């Protein structure tokens, strides 16, 4: 779909939740408490995860005999790339020689900003008069859009491919011909029109196709975790349907073992038990049911009500989607019980954190930094 791009499969964080790939040694992840040891185990190094909001200091200092889970630096805090690490959703940004953790690159076109660093798209800048992200001015002329991320909520970039200027045009209506999802409403997908010969693509409402109706897998954004936009999916998941490449069909479970992966993209191979690949089975990472469908539809309604613009990439904590609609991301019935530990995107989007605004390093931090700088 259009809200965010890319039809990539981003369920790896979820796969961790219920299953380890059977080709691994079948260890299960352990959640380590703040201050507790996260001792690296070279045979088994990736099974320790610090509680969300903490990281293992043994990850950068391998000489530590007993590395522990230490807290990430919050917004406005002093940072470096080693000891004082910013929370993964923040950037260590240096202004006036003081590096602090800041929220950058989250605002879509038309959304509020204090500085251009907050505008997500490289073609945009913060207009100092309106405090909104707008297309940049170059040589006194405003740039034309080059992708739909350059367009405000409710519009898409009409890329002409000619010398004719690209314009942001209003979303097409359902049933109108289209060439990509961004041309359609958030709650619609650009996909084959049912019953058309030759097949034409039109804007179809999300989840609107019944069993055996035409679909294409290529239009699907399969991120049912909702951290990379919303799934672009025209088969009715409420009826348990998914696209087999040509038609919407009921999901068929596949099987797996040490050498054979699950063939269904929504499944991952779960170990029978710890350190035992025997008894591995394919487990669905997505609940194809009405609760999932309702949640996604409510999320789309929320994005529309709040007129959240499109941002290229994963949703971030300060984005409109998370600020206004996080309950649909954080209490998402589409995905299997999440392993709420470690640095997975959803964990960060859903933990409460300090919401200080941009460039608010405390005076104490500035002073400490100045003193430290004098010492070395
Ligand atoms: C590392 O993990 C392996 C496999 O679980 C275990 O046999 C070994 O004792 C562990 N080593 C340490 C130092 O904990
Ligand atoms: C939109 O783009 C098409 C080419 O893809 C062009 O023919 C058409 O004139 C454009 N529409 C507007 C309003 O610019
Ligand atoms: C998908 O399902 C349809 C309808 O059941 C069937 O005709 C078609 O062969 C299937 N395609 C693939 C690639 O499995
Ligand atoms: C895995 O499953 C495939 C297909 O069922 C089978 O051919 C293969 O021998 C199995 N491999 C192992 C290691 O069990």
From TrEMBL:
Q: Which residues form the signal peptide?
A: 1-19
Could you tell me the keywords of this UniProt record?
A: Membrane, Signal, Transmembrane, Transmembrane helix
Regions crossing the membrane = 355-375
Taxonomically, which superkingdom? Eukaryota
Cited InterPro entries:
Diff-Dev_Assoc_Protein
What is the protein name given in its UniProt record?
Paramecium surface antigen repeat-containing protein
């Amino acid at each position: 779909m259009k809200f965010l791009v890319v039809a990539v499969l981003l369920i790896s964080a979820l796969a961790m939740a219920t299953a380890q790939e059977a080709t691994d040694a079948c260890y299960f992840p352990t959640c380590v408490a703040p201050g507790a040891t996260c001792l690296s185990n070279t045979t088994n190094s990736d099974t320790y995860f610090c509680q969300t909001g903490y990281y293992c200091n043994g990850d950068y200092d391998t000489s530590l005999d007993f590395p522990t889970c230490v807290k990430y630096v919050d917004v406005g805090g002093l940072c470096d790339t080693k000891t004082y690490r910013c929370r993964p959703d923040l950037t260590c940004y240096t202004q006036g020689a003081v590096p602090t953790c800041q929220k950058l690159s989250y605002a879509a076109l038309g959304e509020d900003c204090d500085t251009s660093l907050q505008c997500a798209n490289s073609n945009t800048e913060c207009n100092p008069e309106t405090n909104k992200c707008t297309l940049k001015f170059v040589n006194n002329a405003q740039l034309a859009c080059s992708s739909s991320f350059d367009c405000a909520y409710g519009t898409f970039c009409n890329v002409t491919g000619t010398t004719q200027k690209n314009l942001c045009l209003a979303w097409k209506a359902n049933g109108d011909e289209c060439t990509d999802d961004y041309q359609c409403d958030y709650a619609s997908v650009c996909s084959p029109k049912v019953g058309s010969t030759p097949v034409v693509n039109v804007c179809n409402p999300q989840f609107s196709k019944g069993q055996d109706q035409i679909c294409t897998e290529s239009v699907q954004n399969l991120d049912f975790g909702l951290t990379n936009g919303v799934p672009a999916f025209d088969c009715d998941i409420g009826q348990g349907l998914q696209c087999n490449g040509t038609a919407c069909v009921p999901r068929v479970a596949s099987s797996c073992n040490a050498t054979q992966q699950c063939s269904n993209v929504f499944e991952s191979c779960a170990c029978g038990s710890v350190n035992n690949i025997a008894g591995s089975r394919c487990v669905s990472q997505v609940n194809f049911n009405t609760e999932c469908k309702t949640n996604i539809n409510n999320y789309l309604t929320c994005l529309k009500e709040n007129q959240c613009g499109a941002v290229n990439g994963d949703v971030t904590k300060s984005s409109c989607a998370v600020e206004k609609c996080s309950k649909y991301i954080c209490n998402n019935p589409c995905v299997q019980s999440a392993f709420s530990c470690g640095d997975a995107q959803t964990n960060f989007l859903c933990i409460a954190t300090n919401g200080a605004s941009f460039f608010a390093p405390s005076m104490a931090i500035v002073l400490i930094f100045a003193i430290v700088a004098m010492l070395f």
